[in-house]
Amino acid sequence: MQQLMWFRSDLRIDDNTALSQAMSRGSTIALYLVTPGQWQRHDDAPCKVDFWLRNLAQLSRALAALNVPLLIRQCEDWNQAPAVIAEVCHQHNVCAVHANEEYGINESLRDRCVAAYLAQQDIAWHSHLDQLLFKPGSILTRSGGYFQVYSQFRKVCYEHLHMALPGRVARPVAQAPTPLASDAIPQAVDGFAMPSEQLRSLWPAGEEAARQRLERFADEQIGYYKDERDFPALPGTSQLSPYLAAGVLSPRQCLHAALAANRGEFDSGNAGVVTWVNELLWREFYKHILVGYPRVSRHRAFRPETEAVAWRRAPEELAAWQQGRTGLPIIDAAMRQLLETGWMHNRLRMIVAMFLTKNLLIDWREGERFFMRHLIDGDLAANNGGWQWSASTGTDAAPYFRIFNPISQSQKFDPEGRFIRHWLPELAGLNKRDIHDPASLGGLFAPAGYPRPIVDLSRSRERALAAFRNLGQEV
Ligand code: FAD
């Protein structure tokens, strides 16, 4: 019985639940839908689309070794997905379609429509848990609700992990050859500019590249993760987020690599491993939030009362933030890292997000959208979660009165100014004291060609406090 594997954000053959299920049931063909209109509507970054295409090319080669042809179909958006998939099924006599679950509101709607459309034609639909360690709905409060507090969520995740670790699925074995040929993978998609070769070289495509990165991190760095992860000048974090977001790597593979570095323990022993596993659980938490509280998928604040914040319309300040010319070195260096590499260090994501939403008092949705348009690891759940955390509008968010000061953050997490010097060569001549706050040098000594701060930090802090205090939030 012919099976169809529909690849989406799971671009790998190793430890791929849906692929293994499909291939265990019969001869399998694979499909990927190129949907530029949908991607535009989701603000998917050109570098991310390019990363998908490069990984698809690798995936196609890996599938060919299993004698699974990969078909590519293009349609404008997901409204057309049911008909396009049904047509492929009819052409190739497919009796069942397999896919791994995705959790955004549009993704869920798309899958329900595809399943219903296929059912009318007697084609079975199977969706599988794969992108997460725990199925949304399986980690709940005593009263049966979704958790809103990460530490409580994590505690229940630990209980589940103690009972049974999510296992990896076996790599499928090659099936008998089929006469059907794979389609060519597009090199580019209209509307998505090709990123620079320099950016591409930072993120090599394919499962092998992802596996090597994971192994190197687990062998050499994970033990230092707790102490080094907040310092953007160090290679302290795994930089696996683009691979996890595109599904070139699974969270189970990450979990098992971490456990192997800590004698099978995840909540005791090596502090670096424990901290890293906790980050994987943040990823998990925000995806569960997406399912439990779908309003966050609709650009709504998690905490409804914060919808009333009087955000400022300040297009020039927004543009300065976007282009890395705010006059605050740590902010500008971080934004340049984003623009040039498609990625930003987590500590910096928090600093720039807090600066935009508190010091500039600009709506977090502006920042969320800009990040999505530039991140190679852009992921609705994590991005929305991170922005709403920073803006104090989200679940388990930073309290509104705890506003990061970008200069003290810079002094603390880039003490030598190495990160700033790398991204802002115009400040390279400043010593490690002045580099965090060149404006303090005064007119004559301020470095030429670098702007003065666009905002006064203490006055803008007071303005943000007042804006939130007016909502009547408890301190
Ligand atoms: P590591 O520190 O090595 O962590 C391992 C993995 O855990 C990451 O690859 C990621 O999958 C997951 N993870 C780590 N921290 C978080 C977190 N706070 N929330 C959710 N998952 C996490 N992450 C994204 O993957 N996509 C996004 O679009 C995204 N947008 C963000 C926006 C803001 C404003 C903030 C504050 C954070 C955002 N994050 C996002 C979370 C985090 O910054 C990145 O996951 C991390 O920087 C990726 O680097 P890494 O792979 O080296 O992470």
Automatic annotation (TrEMBL):
Coiled coil: none annotated. Keywords: Chromophore, FAD, Flavoprotein, Lyase. Its EC number is 4.1.99.3. It comes from the Bacteria. Gene3D superfamilies: 1.25.40.80, DNA Cyclobutane Dipyrimidine Photolyase, subunit A, domain 3 (1.10.579.10), HUPs (3.40.50.620). One of its GO terms (molecular function) is deoxyribodipyrimidine photo-lyase activity. Pfam families: DNA_photolyase (PF00875), FAD_binding_7 (PF03441). Its cofactor is FAD; (6R)-5,10-methylene-5,6,7,8-tetrahydrofolate. It is an enzyme of class 4 (lyase). The keyword Lyase applies. Residues 1-133 form the Photolyase/cryptochrome alpha/beta domain. The keyword Hydrolase does not apply. Belongs to the DNA photolyase family. Belongs to the DNA photolyase class-1 family. This is Deoxyribodipyrimidine photo-lyase. It comes from Ectopseudomonas hydrolytica. The lineage of its organism: Bacteria, Pseudomonadati, Pseudomonadota, Gammaproteobacteria, Pseudomonadales.
